[in-house]
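Fold it.
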Amino acid sequence: MTDKLFYDDPYLFNFNGTLISAAEENGLWKLELDRTAFYPEGGGQPADRGTLGGQDVIDVQKADGRVFHYVKEKPSGVELEAYVDREFRMDYMQQHTGQHILSAVLKRVAGAATVAVHQAEDYTSIEIDHREFPSETIELIEEETNRLVCANHPVYSYLNGDIPISLFPLRRETKYTEGVRLVQIGGESLEHRSEALEEASEILAGDFKAFSPGIKDLAACGGVHLRRTGEVGLIKFRKQEKVRGRLRLFWLIGNRAYRDYRIKSLLTDKIGEALSVPLTSLGIEFDRLLNALGDERKKNSDLLRDMALLKAGEIRNENHSGKVFFVLKDSDPGFFKQLTIALSSFENIHLCLINLEGDSGQWALISSKEDLDFNIFRSNLLPLVDGKGGGKAPLWQGKVGKADKIDDFADQFESLLS
Protein backbone atom coordinates (compact mmCIF):
# COMPACT_ATOMS: atom_id res chain seq x y z
CA MET A 1 0.00 0.00 0.00
CA THR A 2 1.30 3.43 -0.96
CA ASP A 3 1.19 6.13 1.72
CA LYS A 4 -1.11 8.68 0.03
CA LEU A 5 0.19 12.03 1.18
CA PHE A 6 -2.32 13.94 -0.98
CA TYR A 7 -5.10 12.97 1.44
CA ASP A 8 -3.11 13.97 4.53
CA ASP A 9 -2.16 17.31 2.99
CA PRO A 10 -3.57 18.23 -0.45
CA TYR A 11 -1.36 21.36 -0.35
CA LEU A 12 1.87 19.33 -0.30
CA PHE A 13 3.65 20.03 -3.57
CA ASN A 14 7.15 18.65 -3.00
CA PHE A 15 8.31 15.53 -1.17
CA ASN A 16 10.89 12.73 -1.17
CA GLY A 17 9.91 9.12 -1.80
CA THR A 18 11.68 5.78 -1.86
CA LEU A 19 11.47 3.71 -5.04
CA ILE A 20 10.15 0.23 -4.17
CA SER A 21 9.44 -1.13 -7.68
CA ALA A 22 10.16 -0.28 -11.30
CA ALA A 23 8.90 -2.07 -14.41
CA GLU A 24 8.89 -1.26 -18.11
CA GLU A 25 5.40 -0.98 -19.59
CA ASN A 26 4.41 0.17 -23.08
CA GLY A 27 7.62 2.08 -23.61
CA LEU A 28 7.48 3.84 -20.21
CA TRP A 29 8.80 3.07 -16.74
CA LYS A 30 6.15 2.31 -14.15
CA LEU A 31 7.42 3.42 -10.74
CA GLU A 32 5.99 2.73 -7.29
CA LEU A 33 7.09 4.75 -4.26
CA ASP A 34 6.60 4.09 -0.57
CA ARG A 35 4.80 7.46 -0.36
CA THR A 36 3.47 9.97 -2.86
CA ALA A 37 1.77 13.35 -3.10
CA PHE A 38 0.88 12.74 -6.77
CA TYR A 39 -2.87 12.28 -7.10
CA PRO A 40 -3.69 9.40 -9.52
CA GLU A 41 -6.43 9.74 -12.10
CA GLY A 42 -9.86 8.99 -10.65
CA GLY A 43 -13.21 10.38 -9.58
CA GLY A 44 -13.42 12.60 -12.65
CA GLN A 45 -10.13 14.29 -11.71
CA PRO A 46 -7.06 13.87 -13.96
CA ALA A 47 -3.69 12.69 -12.68
CA ASP A 48 -1.31 15.27 -11.28
CA ARG A 49 1.56 16.67 -13.32
CA GLY A 50 5.07 17.38 -12.13
CA THR A 51 8.53 15.87 -11.94
CA LEU A 52 9.93 12.77 -10.23
CA GLY A 53 13.67 12.29 -9.96
CA GLY A 54 14.12 15.13 -12.44
CA GLN A 55 11.82 13.56 -15.06
CA ASP A 56 8.39 14.70 -16.21
CA VAL A 57 5.60 12.57 -14.77
CA ILE A 58 3.56 11.50 -17.79
CA ASP A 59 0.75 9.71 -15.95
CA VAL A 60 -0.27 8.52 -12.47
CA GLN A 61 -2.60 5.55 -11.98
CA LYS A 62 -3.84 3.51 -9.00
CA ALA A 63 -4.55 -0.20 -8.50
CA ASP A 64 -5.32 -2.17 -5.32
CA GLY A 65 -4.22 0.61 -3.02
CA ARG A 66 -0.95 1.15 -4.91
CA VAL A 67 -0.02 4.27 -6.90
CA PHE A 68 2.10 4.04 -10.05
CA HIS A 69 4.01 6.89 -11.69
CA TYR A 70 4.94 6.74 -15.38
CA VAL A 71 8.18 8.31 -16.67
CA LYS A 72 10.32 7.87 -19.77
CA GLU A 73 13.51 6.51 -18.15
CA LYS A 74 14.34 4.34 -15.17
CA PRO A 75 15.77 6.47 -12.33
CA SER A 76 19.38 5.85 -11.37
CA GLY A 77 18.76 6.20 -7.65
CA VAL A 78 16.30 4.95 -5.03
CA GLU A 79 15.57 8.12 -3.08
CA LEU A 80 13.67 10.41 -5.45
CA GLU A 81 12.82 14.07 -5.09
CA ALA A 82 9.39 14.98 -6.45
CA TYR A 83 7.54 18.17 -7.32
CA VAL A 84 3.80 18.34 -7.96
CA ASP A 85 2.64 21.01 -10.43
CA ARG A 86 1.01 23.43 -7.99
CA GLU A 87 -0.99 25.44 -10.52
CA PHE A 88 -2.44 22.30 -12.12
CA ARG A 89 -3.34 20.72 -8.75
CA MET A 90 -4.94 23.91 -7.41
CA ASP A 91 -6.96 24.30 -10.60
CA TYR A 92 -8.49 20.86 -10.25
CA MET A 93 -9.02 21.23 -6.51
CA GLN A 94 -11.04 24.31 -7.39
CA GLN A 95 -12.93 22.31 -10.01
CA HIS A 96 -13.62 19.38 -7.70
CA THR A 97 -14.64 21.47 -4.69
CA GLY A 98 -16.71 23.77 -6.90
CA GLN A 99 -18.48 20.77 -8.41
CA HIS A 100 -19.47 19.55 -4.92
CA ILE A 101 -20.89 22.97 -4.14
CA LEU A 102 -22.80 23.06 -7.42
CA SER A 103 -24.18 19.53 -6.99
CA ALA A 104 -25.29 20.39 -3.45
CA VAL A 105 -27.10 23.54 -4.58
CA LEU A 106 -28.62 21.80 -7.62
CA LYS A 107 -30.00 19.06 -5.38
CA ARG A 108 -31.20 21.09 -2.43
CA VAL A 109 -32.43 24.22 -4.22
CA ALA A 110 -33.73 22.80 -7.54
CA GLY A 111 -34.19 19.10 -6.75
CA ALA A 112 -31.77 18.15 -9.55
CA ALA A 113 -29.59 15.12 -8.84
CA THR A 114 -26.11 14.88 -10.35
CA VAL A 115 -25.85 11.92 -12.74
CA ALA A 116 -22.36 12.42 -14.17
CA VAL A 117 -19.44 14.85 -13.92
CA HIS A 118 -16.65 15.68 -16.36
CA GLN A 119 -13.69 17.90 -15.51
CA ALA A 120 -12.10 19.07 -18.75
CA GLU A 121 -9.14 21.40 -19.25
CA ASP A 122 -11.33 24.47 -19.76
CA TYR A 123 -14.69 23.64 -18.17
CA THR A 124 -16.50 21.39 -15.69
CA SER A 125 -19.78 19.83 -16.78
CA ILE A 126 -22.51 18.33 -14.60
CA GLU A 127 -25.21 16.11 -16.06
CA ILE A 128 -28.47 16.25 -14.10
CA ASP A 129 -31.70 14.25 -14.08
CA HIS A 130 -33.79 17.09 -15.54
CA ARG A 131 -34.98 17.66 -19.08
CA GLU A 132 -35.54 21.42 -18.82
CA PHE A 133 -34.03 24.22 -16.75
CA PRO A 134 -35.36 27.78 -17.27
CA SER A 135 -32.91 30.67 -17.21
CA GLU A 136 -34.41 31.90 -13.92
CA THR A 137 -33.43 28.62 -12.25
CA ILE A 138 -29.92 28.81 -13.65
CA GLU A 139 -29.55 32.33 -12.24
CA LEU A 140 -30.80 31.13 -8.85
CA ILE A 141 -28.35 28.21 -8.83
CA GLU A 142 -25.45 30.50 -9.76
CA GLU A 143 -26.43 33.01 -7.09
CA GLU A 144 -26.80 30.43 -4.31
CA THR A 145 -23.60 28.68 -5.34
CA ASN A 146 -21.51 31.84 -5.09
CA ARG A 147 -23.20 32.78 -1.82
CA LEU A 148 -21.99 29.45 -0.42
CA VAL A 149 -18.51 30.08 -1.81
CA CYS A 150 -18.33 33.51 -0.20
CA ALA A 151 -19.52 32.14 3.16
CA ASN A 152 -16.11 30.41 3.30
CA HIS A 153 -17.41 27.19 4.85
CA PRO A 154 -14.84 24.59 5.95
CA VAL A 155 -14.34 21.54 3.73
CA TYR A 156 -13.56 18.24 5.46
CA SER A 157 -12.30 14.99 4.01
CA TYR A 158 -12.28 11.80 6.11
CA LEU A 159 -13.01 8.06 6.10
CA ASN A 160 -16.23 6.60 7.46
CA GLY A 161 -14.14 4.52 9.91
CA ASP A 162 -16.15 2.15 12.10
CA ILE A 163 -19.42 4.00 11.41
CA PRO A 164 -21.55 2.13 8.82
CA ILE A 165 -21.73 4.14 5.62
CA SER A 166 -25.51 3.66 5.56
CA LEU A 167 -25.83 5.98 8.59
CA PHE A 168 -24.31 8.97 6.79
CA PRO A 169 -26.88 11.27 5.10
CA LEU A 170 -25.14 11.26 1.71
CA ARG A 171 -26.34 13.42 -1.15
CA ARG A 172 -25.78 10.47 -3.49
CA GLU A 173 -25.63 6.79 -2.57
CA THR A 174 -22.35 4.89 -2.86
CA LYS A 175 -21.81 1.21 -3.63
CA TYR A 176 -18.82 1.02 -1.26
CA THR A 177 -19.23 0.10 2.40
CA GLU A 178 -15.73 0.14 3.93
CA GLY A 179 -12.94 2.67 3.78
CA VAL A 180 -15.20 5.20 2.10
CA ARG A 181 -13.74 8.70 1.86
CA LEU A 182 -16.33 11.39 2.56
CA VAL A 183 -16.26 15.08 1.71
CA GLN A 184 -18.27 17.39 3.94
CA ILE A 185 -18.96 21.06 3.35
CA GLY A 186 -19.87 23.27 6.30
CA GLY A 187 -20.65 22.63 9.96
CA GLU A 188 -18.50 20.59 12.30
CA SER A 189 -16.76 17.49 11.00
CA LEU A 190 -18.77 14.29 11.42
CA GLU A 191 -15.61 12.17 11.59
CA HIS A 192 -15.97 9.65 14.46
CA ARG A 193 -19.17 11.42 15.61
CA SER A 194 -21.97 8.89 15.22
CA GLU A 195 -24.08 10.80 17.75
CA ALA A 196 -24.23 13.79 15.38
CA LEU A 197 -25.49 11.88 12.34
CA GLU A 198 -29.17 12.17 13.19
CA GLU A 199 -28.92 15.94 13.54
CA ALA A 200 -26.93 16.09 10.29
CA SER A 201 -29.70 14.20 8.51
CA GLU A 202 -32.28 16.72 9.71
CA ILE A 203 -30.11 19.64 8.61
CA LEU A 204 -29.48 18.23 5.14
CA ALA A 205 -33.18 17.44 4.70
CA GLY A 206 -34.23 20.92 5.76
CA ASP A 207 -34.30 24.33 4.15
CA PHE A 208 -30.99 25.23 2.52
CA LYS A 209 -30.82 28.78 3.90
CA ALA A 210 -32.18 28.06 7.37
CA PHE A 211 -29.01 26.32 8.50
CA SER A 212 -26.38 28.75 7.22
CA PRO A 213 -23.76 27.73 9.83
CA GLY A 214 -24.56 24.02 9.44
CA ILE A 215 -23.67 21.27 7.02
CA LYS A 216 -24.26 22.11 3.36
CA ASP A 217 -23.25 18.87 1.68
CA LEU A 218 -21.98 15.37 2.37
CA ALA A 219 -20.85 13.03 -0.40
CA ALA A 220 -18.58 10.07 -0.99
CA CYS A 221 -15.56 11.16 -3.04
CA GLY A 222 -11.95 10.04 -3.41
CA GLY A 223 -10.69 13.30 -4.90
CA VAL A 224 -8.63 16.07 -3.35
CA HIS A 225 -10.30 19.28 -2.25
CA LEU A 226 -9.67 22.76 -0.92
CA ARG A 227 -9.80 23.50 2.81
CA ARG A 228 -12.51 26.16 2.56
CA THR A 229 -15.16 27.10 0.00
CA GLY A 230 -13.81 30.66 -0.28
CA GLU A 231 -10.74 29.31 -2.08
CA VAL A 232 -12.98 28.35 -5.03
CA GLY A 233 -13.26 32.06 -5.80
CA LEU A 234 -16.01 32.22 -8.40
CA ILE A 235 -18.46 29.92 -10.20
CA LYS A 236 -20.04 31.01 -13.49
CA PHE A 237 -22.60 29.24 -15.67
CA ARG A 238 -21.44 28.86 -19.28
CA LYS A 239 -24.08 26.95 -21.27
CA GLN A 240 -26.33 23.87 -21.31
CA GLU A 241 -27.06 21.10 -23.78
CA LYS A 242 -29.46 18.16 -23.95
CA VAL A 243 -27.98 14.67 -23.84
CA ARG A 244 -29.78 11.33 -23.54
CA GLY A 245 -32.98 13.01 -22.41
CA ARG A 246 -31.17 14.93 -19.66
CA LEU A 247 -29.36 18.24 -19.29
CA ARG A 248 -25.62 18.79 -19.20
CA LEU A 249 -24.63 22.07 -17.55
CA PHE A 250 -21.23 23.64 -18.29
CA TRP A 251 -19.50 25.76 -15.65
CA LEU A 252 -16.37 27.89 -15.27
CA ILE A 253 -14.93 27.50 -11.78
CA GLY A 254 -12.21 29.35 -9.89
CA ASN A 255 -9.40 31.00 -11.83
CA ARG A 256 -10.98 29.79 -15.08
CA ALA A 257 -14.00 32.00 -14.38
CA TYR A 258 -11.78 34.98 -13.56
CA ARG A 259 -9.77 34.53 -16.78
CA ASP A 260 -12.98 34.30 -18.78
CA TYR A 261 -14.27 37.50 -17.15
CA ARG A 262 -10.97 39.28 -17.85
CA ILE A 263 -11.06 38.36 -21.54
CA LYS A 264 -14.71 39.34 -21.94
CA SER A 265 -14.23 42.57 -20.02
CA LEU A 266 -11.34 43.62 -22.27
CA LEU A 267 -13.36 42.70 -25.34
CA THR A 268 -16.53 44.54 -24.34
CA ASP A 269 -14.50 47.60 -23.34
CA LYS A 270 -12.80 47.59 -26.74
CA ILE A 271 -16.11 47.21 -28.60
CA GLY A 272 -17.79 49.89 -26.50
CA GLU A 273 -14.95 52.29 -27.17
CA ALA A 274 -15.03 51.59 -30.92
CA LEU A 275 -18.81 52.14 -31.06
CA SER A 276 -18.75 55.07 -28.60
CA VAL A 277 -21.44 53.50 -26.41
CA PRO A 278 -21.42 52.48 -22.72
CA LEU A 279 -21.42 48.82 -21.71
CA THR A 280 -25.13 48.97 -20.82
CA SER A 281 -25.98 50.00 -24.40
CA LEU A 282 -23.88 47.39 -26.22
CA GLY A 283 -26.82 45.01 -26.64
CA ILE A 284 -29.04 47.67 -28.18
CA GLU A 285 -26.25 48.89 -30.49
CA PHE A 286 -25.46 45.30 -31.50
CA ASP A 287 -29.07 44.67 -32.52
CA ARG A 288 -29.12 47.91 -34.49
CA LEU A 289 -25.91 47.01 -36.33
CA LEU A 290 -27.14 43.47 -36.96
CA ASN A 291 -30.33 44.77 -38.57
CA ALA A 292 -28.35 47.26 -40.64
CA LEU A 293 -25.96 44.51 -41.72
CA GLY A 294 -28.91 42.40 -42.81
CA ASP A 295 -30.21 45.25 -44.93
CA GLU A 296 -26.78 45.79 -46.52
CA ARG A 297 -26.41 42.10 -47.25
CA LYS A 298 -29.79 42.11 -48.98
CA LYS A 299 -28.75 45.11 -51.07
CA ASN A 300 -25.42 43.48 -51.95
CA SER A 301 -27.15 40.24 -52.87
CA ASP A 302 -29.55 42.07 -55.16
CA LEU A 303 -26.66 43.99 -56.71
CA LEU A 304 -24.65 40.81 -57.30
CA ARG A 305 -27.68 39.19 -58.92
CA ASP A 306 -28.20 42.15 -61.27
CA MET A 307 -24.49 42.20 -62.17
CA ALA A 308 -24.53 38.46 -62.73
CA LEU A 309 -27.51 38.75 -65.08
CA LEU A 310 -25.67 41.34 -67.16
CA LYS A 311 -22.49 39.26 -67.28
CA ALA A 312 -24.51 36.12 -68.06
CA GLY A 313 -26.00 37.91 -71.08
CA GLU A 314 -22.54 38.79 -72.36
CA ILE A 315 -21.25 35.23 -71.92
CA ARG A 316 -24.32 33.74 -73.60
CA ASN A 317 -23.78 35.96 -76.64
CA GLU A 318 -20.11 34.95 -76.85
CA ASN A 319 -21.13 31.31 -76.41
CA HIS A 320 -23.54 31.54 -79.32
CA SER A 321 -20.66 33.01 -81.35
CA GLY A 322 -18.65 29.84 -80.70
CA LYS A 323 -16.72 30.46 -77.47
CA VAL A 324 -17.15 27.58 -74.99
CA PHE A 325 -14.47 28.16 -72.33
CA PHE A 326 -14.44 31.20 -70.04
CA VAL A 327 -11.95 32.09 -67.29
CA LEU A 328 -12.68 34.72 -64.61
CA LYS A 329 -10.02 36.03 -62.22
CA ASP A 330 -10.67 36.68 -58.52
CA SER A 331 -14.43 37.01 -58.87
CA ASP A 332 -16.48 37.06 -55.69
CA PRO A 333 -17.73 33.50 -54.95
CA GLY A 334 -21.24 34.87 -54.42
CA PHE A 335 -21.12 36.59 -57.79
CA PHE A 336 -19.84 33.39 -59.43
CA LYS A 337 -22.71 31.42 -57.91
CA GLN A 338 -25.30 33.95 -59.14
CA LEU A 339 -23.63 33.88 -62.57
CA THR A 340 -23.88 30.09 -62.90
CA ILE A 341 -27.53 30.17 -61.83
CA ALA A 342 -28.32 32.83 -64.42
CA LEU A 343 -26.48 30.98 -67.19
CA SER A 344 -28.15 27.67 -66.38
CA SER A 345 -31.56 29.28 -66.96
CA PHE A 346 -30.78 29.92 -70.65
CA GLU A 347 -31.71 27.46 -73.38
CA ASN A 348 -29.27 26.14 -75.98
CA ILE A 349 -26.13 26.86 -73.96
CA HIS A 350 -22.92 24.78 -73.72
CA LEU A 351 -19.90 26.15 -71.85
CA CYS A 352 -17.44 25.73 -69.02
CA LEU A 353 -16.75 28.56 -66.60
CA ILE A 354 -13.64 28.79 -64.37
CA ASN A 355 -13.08 31.29 -61.56
CA LEU A 356 -9.43 31.36 -60.47
CA GLU A 357 -7.98 32.85 -57.29
CA GLY A 358 -4.27 32.18 -57.43
CA ASP A 359 -3.77 28.53 -58.39
CA SER A 360 -7.19 27.31 -57.20
CA GLY A 361 -10.81 28.31 -57.55
CA GLN A 362 -14.19 27.13 -58.83
CA TRP A 363 -15.49 25.48 -61.97
CA ALA A 364 -18.97 25.21 -63.49
CA LEU A 365 -20.16 23.14 -66.42
CA ILE A 366 -23.38 24.53 -67.92
CA SER A 367 -24.87 22.59 -70.80
CA SER A 368 -28.26 21.87 -72.31
CA LYS A 369 -26.78 19.22 -74.63
CA GLU A 370 -28.83 16.08 -74.09
CA ASP A 371 -26.00 13.81 -75.21
CA LEU A 372 -23.38 15.35 -72.88
CA ASP A 373 -21.69 12.62 -70.82
CA PHE A 374 -20.62 14.19 -67.52
CA ASN A 375 -18.76 11.03 -66.58
CA ILE A 376 -16.27 11.73 -69.38
CA PHE A 377 -15.86 15.30 -68.11
CA ARG A 378 -15.31 14.02 -64.58
CA SER A 379 -12.83 11.27 -65.46
CA ASN A 380 -10.87 12.96 -68.27
CA LEU A 381 -10.93 16.68 -67.49
CA LEU A 382 -11.30 17.23 -63.76
CA PRO A 383 -8.06 15.38 -62.86
CA LEU A 384 -6.13 17.94 -64.97
CA VAL A 385 -7.06 20.70 -62.52
CA ASP A 386 -7.39 18.51 -59.43
CA GLY A 387 -11.11 19.22 -59.61
CA LYS A 388 -13.87 17.90 -57.37
CA GLY A 389 -17.65 18.26 -57.54
CA GLY A 390 -20.78 17.20 -59.36
CA GLY A 391 -24.38 18.08 -60.04
CA LYS A 392 -27.06 17.40 -62.62
CA ALA A 393 -28.14 18.89 -65.96
CA PRO A 394 -27.91 21.65 -66.86
CA LEU A 395 -25.46 22.68 -64.07
CA TRP A 396 -22.48 20.87 -62.58
CA GLN A 397 -20.00 22.67 -60.36
CA GLY A 398 -17.13 22.21 -57.90
CA LYS A 399 -13.63 23.21 -56.81
CA VAL A 400 -10.41 23.66 -58.78
CA GLY A 401 -7.33 22.47 -56.88
CA LYS A 402 -4.63 23.60 -59.30
CA ALA A 403 -4.55 25.55 -62.56
CA ASP A 404 -1.17 24.82 -64.17
CA LYS A 405 -2.82 22.67 -66.88
CA ILE A 406 -5.76 24.96 -67.52
CA ASP A 407 -4.89 25.22 -71.24
CA ASP A 408 -5.01 21.41 -71.66
CA PHE A 409 -8.30 21.47 -69.79
CA ALA A 410 -9.71 24.05 -72.22
CA ASP A 411 -8.57 22.10 -75.30
CA GLN A 412 -10.11 18.84 -74.08
CA PHE A 413 -13.34 20.59 -73.14
CA GLU A 414 -13.69 21.97 -76.66
CA SER A 415 -13.17 18.44 -78.00
CA LEU A 416 -15.82 17.12 -75.63
CA LEU A 417 -18.43 19.49 -77.05
CA SER A 418 -17.46 19.08 -80.71
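The longest strand covers residues 14-25.
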